[in-house]
């Protein structure tokens, strides 16, 4: 390991043919090996898209791997406990990467892989320089509350049409919407820290989510 060059240490994704090779991430003297196998352990439903209710929205673990790792790099997520929490929330909210859009109950504009609300999707889209002109063209500079359902869905589509944007929503939300205190607690890898992230930042209940998070911690968060 010590003999690896600096280039190899920075290598995030290596694809040989159609098979994704495990990714070596080296951050703060800690290493995490993340692969499609580990994603499938966290989200067993992601092993296949066969029978997916919305096939165009479904991504297998192997397809999700690259965009997820890219999101960690883009938003500077280097804590394995944070990575585990982000993968867990995406796996839970999308039933194993099966959905991009909110269908139950079907809120306009809600979606991306962490199923964030339309108002956050608008903030997120505005933060991406490549989408500035498109966002302005759709919204005319109006806030989410002043937009029609169609406009909210159009903003969401800007994000869901690109896997890197789609899978980066969770990392964007954590790093821009959660307080430093919440992140510090989350990075401890404890239940209390994760609970603070879910309740105090995401603003929802831990009910039904804990098992997915515990699996993620066992697989990559230790």
Descriptive account of the structure:
The structure is a single chain. The protein is mainly alpha-helical and 222 residues long. Helix content is 52%, strand content 6%. It has eleven helices and four strands; from the N terminus they run αββββαααααααααα. It has a two-stranded antiparallel ribbon with strand order 1-2. It has a two-stranded antiparallel sheet with strand order 3-4. Strand 3 and strand 4 form a beta hairpin. It is globular, with a radius of gyration of 17 Å. The two termini are 20 Å apart.
Secondary structure blueprint with pairings:
Blueprint: H1 6-10, E1 15-16, E2 19-20, E3 23-27, E4 30-34, H2 36-42, H3 61-74, H4 80-93, H5 118-126, H6 132-139, H7 149-160, H8 163-177, H9 180-186, H10 191-202, H11 210-221
